[in-house]
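[Discussion] Sanity-checking designs against the backbone

I'm trying to build intuition for which residues belong where. Below is a structure token string of 148 positions. I'd appreciate it if someone posts a full sequence so I can compare it with mine line by line.
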């Protein structure tokens, strides 16, 4: 990385490198894999999953650890205990005894047939975004005639 980049520019450069790396994983491992040929709208799903992964792999180390998973779930409003986090981590990595998961593990979980708690939470969050937004602005003024 360029030594002259600092702060936001360095972070932007890091994120653009990460974007390129994850796009190549999408292309090589998933878009060309016949196993996923039947997956409906695969490229847009991969883009959505990539953006979600990048949101929580802030330093581009390539793996999300237990604390990253904890932050992810807290940000989604679903705080979990340490034992629940270990169970979710085990679901994501397919039962392997690891304390981190990589982007490929994440995609295998999101596109796979097994139901993971994390997958269900993330899919529920996306469905919530698709619903019509609530009215914004201050509430309407109430009068005495509005009282029951």
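Best answer:
Here's mine. Compare freely.
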């Amino acid at each position: 990385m360029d030594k002259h980049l600092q702060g936001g520019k360095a972070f932007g450069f890091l994120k653009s490198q990460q974007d390129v790396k994850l796009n190549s994983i999408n292309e090589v491992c998933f878009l060309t894999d016949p196993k996923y040929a039947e997956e409906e709208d695969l490229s847009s799903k991969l883009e959505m999953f990539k953006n979600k992964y990048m949101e929580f792999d802030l330093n581009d180390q390539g793996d999300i650890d237990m604390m990253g998973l904890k932050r992810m779930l807290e940000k989604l409003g679903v705080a979990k205990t340490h034992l629940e986090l270990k169970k979710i981590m085990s679901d994501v990595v397919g039962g392997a005894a690891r304390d981190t998961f990589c982007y490929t593990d994440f995609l295998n979980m999101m596109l796979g047939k097994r139901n993971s708690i994390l997958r269900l939470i993330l899919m529920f969050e996306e469905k919530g975004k698709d619903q019509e937004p609530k009215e914004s602005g201050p509430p309407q003024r109430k009068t005495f005639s509005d009282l029951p």
